Structures are given as structure tokens and as C-alpha cells.
Q: What sequence folds into this?
């Protein structure tokens, strides 16, 4: 197995996730799915594993929509993805022939100057064409990665109205073709953030309420240890030490496979047998290294990108107050801490911010001895926040 923090893994190197994927297939039997989670937790690799190990009865198409900035680009990308994916699928020669004859006229149509105005028709046709390639018992499964980012781009480049119309159009399509079409949306930006901003700009009400929203959990503890152990085998670690080192890595970084890859990468660079202290030093390196190898600064910059200015200021206030706390904090305690920094903070503003930060996976609400308490979701992020911003 290759140590590869942040890169694209071979399917065989994607560890665990079987429980989650099993659950997602069961949901897809009946409705579409929106997966949310913090950045780098492994969403894309879940989608890739689902595509590779697709259940019978589905034709899966994975699309990364990050670079899509207009609806004609989206439609072109659908045709392009299908052509490419069919080439990699077994037993679909007939589909490929059909698709190849269709492609020039379709793509030609998308490039016409009138395409911008008639995108609804072109998009519906694209899905009709797709549904056409399967038989009556086959469902087309669109695995749409970075869907929220595409909406955000559309909102900025083309306008909120177009993004809202696209959401409404997709909803109508899902309802009309529920027997033959399923969508799974995910991405590094939460869909809730983009919907919130669209709601402020127009009248997007609840355009994905026919789909189930689930948060992608960390990988299970035994899988985290298994991943760490498999990666340690690539280093100079003594085989007898690997189980102990692996469990120490899981304790340091939790079920976040991206950080596991990073820590083992650091151990690998030692050029000697790593020990338990090296594991702690490697985890600390993620927090203290000036080049921010695990991109923890993204937790700050994304607030500027996706939060309105007043919400961003409140989010920073709460997170800055929470980071130095040694234990999880109750709402009254947090209100006190925040009011030391900003005496005008209203109770309701704090509660709204806590909800937003929880939805956005920065913090977690837990059950404390005398009621609900809040803390950072990831100890590593908390440590980074404290060391960098306090
Ligand atoms: N199941 C897994 N097994 C092993 N490594 C994993 C797994 N999932 C993720 N990783 C590691 O974490 C990295 C990030 O994973 P991935 O790109 O899937 O995250 P993501 O949630 O899609 O991130 P982003 O939000 O930035 O799109 C991978 O490059 C790999 O190093
Ligand atoms: Mg991703």
C-alpha cells in the first residue's frame, strides 16, 4: 500500500467504509443522498469505492464538478463522463456504440449560442439519453462530487437565479424519473452553506428535501488501526512494533485517514525505526509545521469564502474562545467566555453560531454531566486553532 496523503488511491487501498457504503446503497434503493462532512475525511474515496464495487441494477457515473461554471459546461461534462466511463465498464459495448453516434450532435447543440437559453431542454435530454442506455431494470446513478461548489460557482458567475432554477429542475427530474435515476451529492463545501446563501439571494426553499442528508463519520477505530498498520509496513518500522505504533497513531489523530497518511509519511522520512515518541512528534508536526502540511488553515479560510461577514466574525469569536478550553464547554460558560471578547454578543447569536458550526463539522454537541456541552470535533484541529490563533 502506498503512503499517499491527499492523492488518489487505488480502490484496494481504500480501507474500511463498508458499513457506511452498505447504508448508502440501502438509502439509494428508495431516495437520493446528500453526504456532508469536513474536508479531507474521505468523501471522494467513498464515491470511488461505490463506483468500483457498484451494486447490480445500477449504472454509476462519477463526476467531479469542481471546474464546472455554467450549465452548458455541466451538460457537456455529463456527456463526456459517460463516454469515458462506458469505456471502462465491462459488457457495455452496445452502449458505447450508441453513445458515440449520439455525441457529436448533442455536444454540437450545447455549443450553439442558443444553448444558454434552452438549457432546461438540453439537460432533460441528456438524462433521457442516459436513461436510454440502460434497460428497464437499470438505474442510472450520478455520483456528483463537488456539487455544492459547482452551485457556488454558478451563483457567482451566472447568478443565484440560475443556481436555484437548476436545483428546482433537478428536483423535478428526480421525482419524474425516480424509477430510473438516482443522485448522490457531496463535496468539500456543505450544501447547507450554499443553500443558505441562495435563500438569502432569492427564493430557494427546500430543493433537496426529497433526498436524505447524512454526515460521513470518521473511519471506525479498528479500520484506522488497520490503515496505520498497513502504511507502517511501507516504513522501516519493526513488524513487532507495528500494532503498538498503529494504535498510537489512531489515538493521536482519530479516525481521519488523511492525517494517518500524513503521520506515517513523516515517520517514513525518519529513515530509521520509528518509536512511540516519534508518533507524537509527527502528529505535532501537523500542528506546528509552518508549511501547514495537513492544510489546517483551510478551517479559517473557508469561513471567509462561504460565511457572510457577520457570521464569520461570530464563528471566529466562538472558536477562538473554545480552543483554549481544557474540557468541553456549556452554552452559559461559552457565552461568558465570548462576552469577555465581545460584550454585545446576544445569547441567540451564540446559539445560531453553534448550530452553524456543528452543521459544518467544526464543533460537536455532546452530553455533559449537567447538560449539553460543545467542543471541537477533532482534537488536532483544536490544538492547531489554539496554537495558531490564541
Ligand atoms: N478509506 C480510506 N482509506 C485510506 N485512506 C483514505 C481513505 N479515505 C481517505 N483517505 C486519505 O485521505 C485523503 C483524502 O481523501 P478524499 O479526497 O476522499 O477526501 P474528501 O473528503 O473527498 O476531501 P475534500 O473535501 O477535500 O474533497 C486521501 O488522499 C487519502 O490519503
Ligand atoms: Mg473530495
A:
Amino acid at each position: 500500500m502506498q503512503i499517499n496523503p491527499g492523492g488518489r488511491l487505488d480502490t484496494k487501498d481504500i480501507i474500511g467504509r463498508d458499513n457506511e457504503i452498505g447504508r448508502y446503497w440501502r438509502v439509494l434503493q428508495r431516495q437520493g443522498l446528500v453526504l456532508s462532512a469536513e474536508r479531507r475525511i474521505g468523501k471522494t474515496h467513498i464515491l470511488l469505492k461505490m463506483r468500483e464495487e457498484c451494486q447490480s441494477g445500477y449504472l454509476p457515473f462519477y463526476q467531479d464538478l469542481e471546474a464546472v461554471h455554467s450549465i452548458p459546461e455541466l451538460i457537456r461534462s455529463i456527456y463526456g463522463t459517460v463516454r469515458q466511463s462506458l469505456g471502462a465498464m465491462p459488457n457495455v459495448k452496445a452502449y458505447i456504440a450508441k453513445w458515440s453516434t449520439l455525441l457529436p450532435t448533442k455536444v454540437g447543440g450545447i455549443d450553439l449560442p442558443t444553448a444558454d437559453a434552452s438549457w432546461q431542454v438540453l439537460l432533460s435530454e441528456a438524462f433521457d439519453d442516459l436513461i436510454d442506455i440502460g434497460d428497464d431494470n437499470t438505474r442510472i446513478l450520478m455520483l456528483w462530487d463537488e456539487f455544492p461548489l459547482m452551485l457556488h460557482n454558478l451563483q457567482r458567475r451566472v447568478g443565484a437565479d440560475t443556481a436555484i432554477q437548476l436545483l428546482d429542475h433537478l428536483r423535478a427530474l428526480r421525482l419524474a424519473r425516480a424509477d430510473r435515476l438516482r443522485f448522490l451529492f457531496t463535496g468539500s463545501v456543505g450544501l447547507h452553506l450554499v443553500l443558505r446563501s441562495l435563500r438569502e439571494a432569492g427564493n430557494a426553499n427546500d430543493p433537496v428535501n426529497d433526498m436524505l442528508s447524512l454526515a460521513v463519520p470518521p473511519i471506525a477505530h479498528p479500520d484506522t488501526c488497520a490503515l496505520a498498520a498497513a502504511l507502517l509496513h511501507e516504513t522501516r518500522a519493526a513488524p513487532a512494533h507495528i500494532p503498538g505504533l498503529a494504535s498510537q497513531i489512531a489515538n493521536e489523530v482519530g479516525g481521519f485517514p488523511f492525517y494517518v497518511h500524513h503521520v506515517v509519511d513523516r515517520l517514513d522520512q525518519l529513515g530509521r525505526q520509528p518509536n512511540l515518541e516519534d508518533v507524537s512528534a509527527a502528529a505535532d508536526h501537523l500542528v506546528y509545521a509552518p508549511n501547514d502540511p495537513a492544510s489546517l488553515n483551510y478551517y479559517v479560510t473557508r469561513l471567509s469564502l462561504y460565511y457572510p461577514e457577520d457570521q464569520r466574525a461570530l464563528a471566529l469569536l466562538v472558536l477562538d474562545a473554545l480552543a483554549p478550553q481544557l474540557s468541553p464547554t456549556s452554552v452559559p460558560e461559552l457565552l461568558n467566555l465570548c462576552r469577555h471578547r465581545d460584550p454585545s454578543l446576544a445569547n441567540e447569536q451564540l446559539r445560531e453560531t453553534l448550530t452553524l458550526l456543528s452543521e459544518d463539522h467544526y464543533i460537536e454537541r455532546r452530553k455533559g454531566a449537567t447538560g449539553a456541552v460543545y467542543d471541537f470535533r477533532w482534537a488536532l484541529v483544536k490544538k492547531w486553532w489554539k496554537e495558531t490563533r490564541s
Residues 43-44, 145, 188 surround magnesium ion (ligand 2) (CB under 6 Å). The beta strands are 33-36, 58-64, 139-145, 181-185, 212-215, 329-330, 363-368, 371-376. The chain has a mean pLDDT of 92.
